[in-house]
Structure formats: C-alpha cells, structure tokens
Design goal:
alpha/beta; Rossmann fold; 8-stranded mixed sheet; 10 helices; 39% helix
Length: 297
Amino acid sequence: MADPNQSPMPTISRDIINLYDHFTHGDMDRRSFMSQLARLAGSTTAAVALLPFLHNDYAYAETVKPDDPRLLTEEGVAVEGGEKGLTGYLARPKIGGTRSTVLVIHENRGLNPHIKDITRRIALEGYLAFGLDVLSPDGGTPLDEDKARDMFAKLTVEVATARAISAVRFLAGYPQSNGKVAAIGFCWGGGIVNLVATGEPNLKAAISYYGPQPPVERVASIKAAMLLHYAGLDQRIDAGIPAYKAALDAAKIRYELYTYEGVDHAFNNDTNSARYNKDAADSAWSRSVAFLKRELG
C-alpha cells in the first residue's frame, strides 16, 4: 500500500524480488543479502533506499482496528493441552453464542501486526479466530524480524506442525466453539496448514496461501476440504504444484486450486508494497470467505 508521504516506489526487478524471497526464507544471511542487493541495485546507497519498499510496513496492518467495537480480542491466550507456553491472539464477534473457529498461521516472521489484522478480519466474518504464535514456547515473536528469522531457522517443521495441531484440538473444545475448525496459513504458515491437514483428521477445512506442499505420500490422509492459492511468478513454490495436484486427485480429496498470474509470492500481504497485489488479494480473500461459509457454515 502506498504512503502519500513516502517517495514513489521505485521499479523493483524480478531479480531483486527473487533475492528478497530467498533471504526471507532463510537461504542466506543478512550480510550476503545486502551485498547481492547492492550489486543488483547498483550501489550500497541504492540498496539501502530499496529496503523500505521490500520490508513490511505495519503502519498498514490495521484495516480492522484492534479496538473495533464489533469485536472482543485477547492477547496471550494459552493453548490448553498444548506445549507449555503456547499462546495466541483471539478475536471473536462481540455478539455471543457458539460459532465455528478458524486457526490463523503466520508467515515465517511470527505473529506480527499484519497477522493479527487478518485474525480480526476473519472474526468480522462471524468466526472465532485464533492467531497462533508458533514461536511462543520459544519466547514469543520478537519485534525484530531478523531475530524472528533466526528463531524459525531453529524450529523444526515437526515441532511447528505439532503446535498447530494442538491449537486445532484446543479450538474444537473451546467454550464458544461449535467444534468445527478450519485453518488458514500464509507462506510458511500455508505449508504448516498443508501438513496439519495431513495429520489432523478432525480439521474441517484448510486454506493455504502459497505454502510449500506436503510430502505426496501423506496426501491420502487428508480429510479436510482444501483451498490452495498460488502466485503465478512464485517459481520456488509453484514447482511443487503438479505433484500435489496429482496426489490430491488420486486420493479423491475435495480441493480448489487457483493460480493468480503475474503476481508474486506474498501477494496477500498488504503491508509489503513490493509484492502486494490488490486484485489478486481481493479475489483470493473472496474465495476464502466463500469457502469458509460453505465448509463451516
């Protein structure tokens, strides 16, 4: 999203976008990233000038305000029955009664303001929404994204998936829950959603935004309906689509798969001006809400 007080966004090449994608997914350290960015941008000064357009700007992470009068929100809600210290951010409509629940799994930067905003958006659709902080047993999501990146490098996929599954089970038994649970995840979180779907038979529905695919030999164990969103320019993730689709078809899993042409990985993240694409994000969100309404009620 554009800041009227910020200089116009410069042209950012595909090579720079791909480089930043490798950096954010732990394929290189910050020094190597800055060195290569300076080479692509033409100078260290130009590289530094590009950083605000590559990084997330959480000034735009409140499309639904934390104190929205239609919602009740709570920080640091403990996942009972889960690993010690596992917590998340709860948002639900102020109007009482039981309702279906949606687990929200963040990107590989943790439970940041953008993901909390996504959680509130889902709550406004009528659900009890829970933004899990997968890093909470390890000290919680830090404010410094580089520190979060380092924490994710030490977190195994198996541990992260177990934490998410325990959150699904917690939400199924939550006092205001009707027992129906879906999960939605973005980037790294989209990959965890795929894995949760293979390991938690009580999950009713799963939405993965440009997430890494699960091992094909585990696909047949999926019981949830699946909604898969991919970015057309995301070669790293899209390489796994054909095998995943074939496995889903072979196992007769109910799924919908959409590829949004001409857009980048993380196209839904409206706090990142370099990769956000409003048309694709709006289309994917509309499909996600319709999917939840159909699968959860």
